Amino acid sequence: MDRSDVTLERMRTFVRVAERGSLSAVARELGVGQSTVTRHLRELEDAVGVPLLSRTTRRVTMTDEGSRYYADSVQILRLVEQAGDEARGTRGASAGTIRISCTAALGVLHVSRLIFAFQDRYPDIGVDLSLTDERIDLVREGVDIALRLGPLTDSSMKLRALGQSRRLLVAAPAYLAARGRPAVPQDLPGHEGIRMSNIAGSDTLALQGPGGERHAVPFGGRFRVDHGLAAREALVAGRGIAPAHHWLVDDLLAAGRLEVILPDYAPPPIPLSMLIVPEHAGIARVRLLVDFLAERIRGIPGIEKPR
Fold first, then answer.
1. Tens digits of residue pLDDT in 175-207
2. What HEC string does the chain produce?
């Protein structure tokens, strides 16, 4: 083989295997057999003339030559994508697929509807929406954009602050009728708390008072859960009190199925951010979705301007 056999298809396969570290995972992602992935890699290495990947029974890693080739390949593929956008002019953004990851409950209740509106405006753009509360590796999982609640530490991604998610202390009327309504934060340790098991320190509840004073009160309970929608169901079922994002319970509050307690004492808001893979930020369809979400996300109940 010669350099003319370095095709974009083979290069894309190599890039995804390098990112995921698994031939079988990439085969599933591309919808082809693992033998096809193996053949693409072998043909690319033959054309380049050096081994790009080191294979073991458990893992595929890049050689030193492969690491250098990977960095150049990512730039080449990005330029090819952008060149296609520019050649198609205004139509360039209206084709292709965007992969987005989102905090699960927020995605189910609100972001999915924003994506429907985005696709109504751009009907030829496909969107793959992945819902997870795990802090995934965007590059490894082939994700373009991620919406995340909470502090972020991944400095390799482009960060766009979307706002602050306001939180409230809520409970069902039936629970309050049976157990009484807390009048001050110091009453909370005597109540059942619904806690998130995937959040560190959930056995202590931080609250800010009307004068800006801060309170930290013990917060216990028999039910812990790692998903916001399950916490929402527990609240409706009268299982206890919980700090909840406004967007998680706004419809239940409006319907009278939940009530705000200690309204003068609020848990601190949580930052909502968008992470963007830098190499994908210049792709027209990705830019469109980034700008669309940044504009519309503040229409979600309880999402306030960034501080």
1. 999 999 999 999 999 999 999 988 888 899 999
2. CCHHHCCHHHHHHHHHHHHHCCHHHHHHHHCCCHHHHHHHHHHHHHHHCCCCEEECCCCEEECHHHHHHHHHHHHHHHHHHHHHHHHHHHHHHHCEEEEEEECHHHHHHHHHHHHHHHHHHCCCEEEEEEECCCCCCHHHHCCCEEEEECCCCCCCCEEEEEEEECEEEEECHHHHHHHCCCCCHHHHHHCCEEEECCCCCCCEEEEECCCCCEEEEECCCCEEECCHHHHHHHHHCCCCEEEEEHHHHHHHHHCCCCEECCCCCECCCEEEEEEECHHHCCCHHHHHHHHHHHHHHHHCCCEECCC
